[in-house]
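Weekly modeling sync, notes
Attendees: S.R. (lead), two postdocs, one rotation student

Agenda item 3: backlog of single-chain predictions. S.R. asked that every request posted to the team notebook include the full sequence so nobody has to chase files. The rotation student volunteered to paste the first one in as an example of the format we agreed on. Action items at the bottom.

Example entry:
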Amino acid sequence: MGPSQPPNGFWSELDETERQALREAGRSRPYATGMHLCYEGDPSDYVIVIENGWAKVTSTTEDGHDVVLAVRGPGDLVGESAGLGHRQRSATVTALSPLQALLVPAARFATFLDEHPRAWRMVSGTFVRRIDDHDRRLRAQASADGARRLALLLIDLAEHYGTPGPAGSVIIQPPLSQSELASWVDSSRETVARALKIWRTRRLVDTARRKITVLNPDGLRAYANGQPPPGTNGRPVGAR
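Predicted structure, as returned to the notebook:
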């Protein structure tokens, strides 16, 4: 696994002996963009470690709409809760880009954890971080409108899955579309498009197809926290 890992990524916390043992327990396979790594509701018979590339985690609502719940990238562990708990998959995982993943049968993954107790603590840490991140995002977004929810998400993605760009900018690595962003923040695609358009004119962000660069992290964070970013004269940006 050559690419750089996200902060605190499961794979990056393993030592080389642990990594080799996990490689021997599983098999690596490629996925093209749009391919599913697992399906919501399916039996859980394997755990996934993303070697490189990006995936989205989605769940289907009662009316048939897919809702984006999270993204996973290089070094991330996927499906560990369902696999270890022998439960059905709670979400669908789909490749956002060409992706390579290590698939480890659930029984072998459990044996690996038994033989490497330190790794158990890392899996527990993954559980706790994801619950904390989810709760923190819910609290932060509870009273925010669609544009602010989007700003909060972009800041979060920049902090967790960003790479430094020129002049203090941050390039968000997961290749997300406007529709996927709208689904994630429970807003309309029109609200997302309008907010991004205004933020581009304010030089807070730059966008291309499935690519967002946060040009002014401090300015976007100020807006996400309910403070008007530079140049707005206190007016809301991107909200109805």
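Discussion: group reviewed the output briefly. The two ends are 44 Å apart (CA to CA).
Action items: rotation student to repeat for the remaining queue; S.R. to check formatting next week.
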